[in-house]
Amino acid sequence: MYHFKSCACCLELIPLTSLFSDRMFVHRTLCGRPALQLSRMFSAKSLPILTLFTKDPCPLCDEAKELLQPFKHRQVDISLPENRQWWDKYKWDIPVFHLNGQFLMKHGVDAALLDKLLQDIEKQNL
Questions:
Q1: In sequence order, what are the beta bridge partners of 46?
Q2: pTM higher than 0.70
Q3: CATH class of 44-125
Q4: Region of 11 on the Ramachandran plot (φ > 0 left; ψ -120 to 50 alpha; else beta)
Q5: How far apart are CA 24 and CA 90, in angstroms?
Q6: Could you tell me if 9 and 28 are in contact, meaning their C-beta atoms sit under 8 angstroms apart?
Q7: Cβ contacts of residue 19 below 8 Å, gap of 6+?
Q8: pLDDT tens digits along 60-89
Q9: β-strand partners of 116
């Protein structure tokens, strides 16, 4: 039987397998990010497209992937032959991020910048 607990940040109901489940802790850890809260405001039709240019191994990319886990995003492995153009452009700069096809940032996730841009996009969609 599932119990549900409401998140104080976003009011989402979180199914808990027990009253002491760590699922709420994980949700709150992710939910506390303003950008995540904003991502929930976008309708499916107007979701921004976030692209992460990466390769393996890349410790900075792994950190970025972890931070972006709650977001729907696209990953491009620049080491694959079909992505040679991106390898030539970004081999020394990964992780690199594009938002809606435009360069956004490189070398890591700037949460404040991402948050601001998502807010701007949300205002445009109102």
A1: none
A2: no
A3: alpha beta
A4: left
A5: 37
A6: yes
A7: 3
A8: 999 999 888 877 889 999 999 999 999 999
A9: none
Domain boundaries, the chain: 3-32, 44-125
On whether the CB atoms of residues 57 and 14 are closer than 8 A, the answer is: no
DSSP structure string for 49-115 = -EEEEE-SS-HHHHHHHHHHTTS-EEEEETTSGGGHHHHHHHTTT-SEEEETTEEEEESS--HHHHH
Question: What length is written for the chain?
Answer: 126
**Residue pair 24/58 in contact by the 8 Å Cβ criterion:** no
User: Is there a contact between 54 and 75 (Cβ–Cβ < 8 Å)?
Assistant: yes
Give the number of other Cβ atoms within 10 Å of residue 98's Cβ: 17
- Quick one: pLDDT at residue 19? 38
